[in-house]
Design brief:
Elements lengths: L40 E4 L5 H11 L5 E5 L2 E10 L1 E4 L2 E6 L8 H11 L6 E9 L5 E4 L5 E9 L3 E7 L6 E7 L4 E4 L1 H5 L2 E4 L6 E9 L1 H4 L3
Antiparallel strand pairs: 1-11, 2-3, 3-6, 4-5, 6-13, 7-12, 8-11, 8-13, 9-10, 9-12
């Protein structure tokens, strides 16, 4: 299981593929500025094959997940963090279980996509979204730099916004199963993102790199 099977993966010819076809118009009832693709957002369809997805899901099925807790309220989505600990829904500086050996090849592959070394991806957050689960507007924790996500099993909508109420700039991307995305630059620091409640079970893996300044001091 821990061996990388090169035949399972597409190359990086899709890395620079435009994502404009994935962006939908904002709801007509919502007063917004013109639709804008977040600078620093990269999207790679077909990052994994169906066979590789099955193998990854088999590993994730062995992980003990817990409800994500925010303000003492458990959410519907279930999570497990590797590399850095999760405490009542927020990250602290404490250690957690290391990223499983069976997923190291995926960490390496995601690091290449992000332009990082594998060891720089200090955190892996595994999330299971049962039907009806989503995630509200947020930016990832500030100690992290680039964020790379891998979507499994079911497509979802990923919505983006920046600005202020009643004057948002918005964008929307359909994240397909077995695809990957990277949030860097303004997409990471200026835009919030959200996933509306899903109608079918979905899994995600989110690799996060510590900010470069912080990575050298830990």
């Amino acid at each position: 299981m821990g061996h990388r099977r090169r035949g399972d993966f597409t190359g990086y010819e899709h890395r620079d593929r435009t994502i404009s076809s994935h962006v939908r118009a904002a709801a007509a009832s919502r007063p917004v500025h013109a639709m804008t693709l977040p600078e620093g957002l990269s999207y790679v369809p077909g990052f994994l094959t169906e066979a590789a997805e099955r193998d990854v899901l088999a590993v994730l099925a062995t992980c003990e997940l817990q409800p994500y807790v925010l303000h003492d309220t458990p959410s519907r989505r279930l999570v497990r963090s590797f590399g850095l600990a999760v405490v009542t829904g927020a990250y602290d500086a404490g250690p957690a279980a290391p990223i499983p050996a069976e997923l190291q090849w995926l960490r390496e592959r995601c690091a290449t996509l992000m332009g990082r070394e594998p060891e720089e991806l200090a955190d892996l957050l595994v999330t299971r979204y049962p039907p009806g689960a989503g995630i509200g507007w947020h930016r990832d924790a500030p100690q992290f730099g680039e964020v790379g996500g891998i979507s499994l099993l079911t497509a979802c909508r990923m919505r983006f916004r920046r600005g202020r109420p009643r004057a948002w700039q918005t964008a929307e991307l359909t994240i397909e199963p077995r695809s990957a995305y990277v949030l860097s630059g303004p997409a990471r620091t200026q835009w919030q993102h959200q996933i509306p409640p899903v109608t079918q079970e979905r899994w995600s893996m989110t690799f996060r790199a510590l900010r470069r300044a912080a990575a050298g001091t830990r």
